Amino acid sequence: MAVTGWGVVSPIGLDAPAYWSGLVAGRCGIGPISIAPNERLRQKIAAEIKDFDPLVHFAPDRLKFLDRVSQLAVVAAQEAIAGSGLVLDDELRPHTACIIGSGAGGQITQDEVFRQFYEEKANRVPPLTIPKMMVSGPASHVSMHFGLEGPAYAVASACASATHAIGQAFHMLRSGAVRCAVAGGAEAGITLGSLKGWEAMRIMAPDTCRPFSKDRLGMVLGEGAAVVVLESFDDAVRRGAEILGEIVGFGMSADARDLISPDDVGMARAMTAALGDGRLAVENVQYVNAHGTGTAANDIAETSALKRVFGEHARSLAISSTKSMVGHSLGAAGALELVATLMALRAGVAPPTIGYREPDPLCDLDVVPNVARSLAMNAAISNSFGFGGLNAVLAVKRV
After folding, report:
1. Fewer beta carbons within 10 Å, N or C terminal of the chain?
2. Can you tell me whether residue 119 is helix, strand or coil?
3. Is residue 159 annotated as a catalytic residue, yes or no?
4. Global pTM?
């Protein structure tokens, strides 16, 4: 399926061109938390989206309906649809799907309402509390904003949410169920309540995210949104669209083993399924955008899974974790990473894994440390592995 538009709101850029410039430059979007109270936090860093002004994009009276997560989703979708050149007329809108992944939905609304209720002893909460905090909010607002009347729903599969959402859109297009799809992910969960929950898991880094580096200390929470426009290759060519890349395969699996611990066998099944679906031989893949969270267990498991799938060719792969720059945006991560993967193929540049300081014998593949690399690339995969053993992988090709 052809990708004809992409849109991004990220900690290193408020649109897709700025995002790509940040990735190539190895810009770090991780810093001190400013959008949530941090006095009670041990880990006081996150990858925030700075300088995002919702009033640039929405009228004040509309903002009362929109949690930050939905704001980010609509803005990313606006860029993607505008860039695609699609005319969403009365004929196309009923045949356009809208599938947006989110791990948690409107957490800022939830956190604030709970604070008012428990701390201030408020007897009433705002009447739009539930619509703003529901996990399907971003999908609903994107569909309403652009009048998309085809299938519209949310996917919630923890850190694999956006990849599952885009994969579902890919399947719908391939089956002929829809003619076009707007798909991606959004997350805005940098709140005191959420951060305390993540702290309790003891997997959060105190300084920065260093995926695959021996001295890595954990993940860093991020926020963001990314959306792509998908349509059949023939339709895109027929209307003269600029084709940014092609999704050729989608693979899914469940570890069915543990709620938290990653499993390299489950990861490998999803990668193998994506390659098989895309009819890609392992030796035809040059780049992997890794899940690469920076936690001890995940990075070791993913390295092992890559070796299981690619064999000796694993040592020829360029592998990078863009979470080292934008943090882990949970349900949005897969969409941000798919766009990064497509951009990498298109430009012939593998983004770096920044913060890398020391080789880990258990993570001994080429992780493009610290500096972007020019590389001839024709095919790649983007990995997403969520809590609960929920795995999703997209296979893409350069056009």
Report:
1. C
2. coil
3. yes
4. 0.97
